[in-house]
Design goal:
Belongs to the actin-binding proteins ADF family. This protein is of the alpha+beta class. Helices cover 35% and strands 32% of the residues. The chain has a single domain (8-145), classed as 3-Layer(aba) Sandwich (Severin). Strand 3 and strand 4 form a beta hairpin.
């Protein structure tokens, strides 16, 4: 996937989240086999539950990419103080029941798509709704950030 495979609006809206915090999230979809386009943009006041609703709107038969500006608190092990953090995270919703062609496309384009999104700190491929819970996602990324 090169820059031609990612519609300009994808990068423009992503940069509006990254630089100016204009939106809370974006849902992306593959159109015409190899072009990534914006499907949904979440306003800043939307929460994680609304993001999940939009990400999984097509049920367990279609894959999607979603970028979420995750705000969370982390307790410092040394000072025991609570620290507020923000991370741009990319989730690849690729359920087990999705169409095989769709799974192959989304998983094969994931790395190249991530390269277009400068500043994404973490990514995760998610196959079951249980893995999409905020606690599960936050725990996954918090564990990764303490190892870095």
């Amino acid at each position: 996937m090169n820059a031609d495979n990612c519609r300009p609006t994808c990068i423009e809206i992503y940069e509006a989240i990254r630089k100016s915090k204009e939106y809370r999230y974006i849902i992306f979809r593959l159109v015409s086999d190899s072009v990534v386009d914006v499907e949904t943009v979440g306003p800043r006041d939307n929460d994680y539950n609304q993001f999940l609703e939009d990400l999984t709107r097509n049920g367990s038969i279609e894959c999607r990419y979603g970028v979420f500006d995750l705000e969370y608190s982390h307790t410092c092990e040394v000072t025991k103080q609570e620290i507020k953090r923000e991370k741009l995270v990319l989730l690849c919703w690729c359920p087990d029941d999705a169409k095989p062609k769709g799974k192959i496309q989304y998983l094969s384009y994931l790395r190249q798509f991530m390269e277009q999104l400068k500043g994404v700190q973490y990514y995760k491929t998610v196959r079951e709704k249980l893995e999409l819970s905020r606690d599960s996602v936050e725990g996954f990324f918090c564990r990764k950030s303490t190892r870095q």
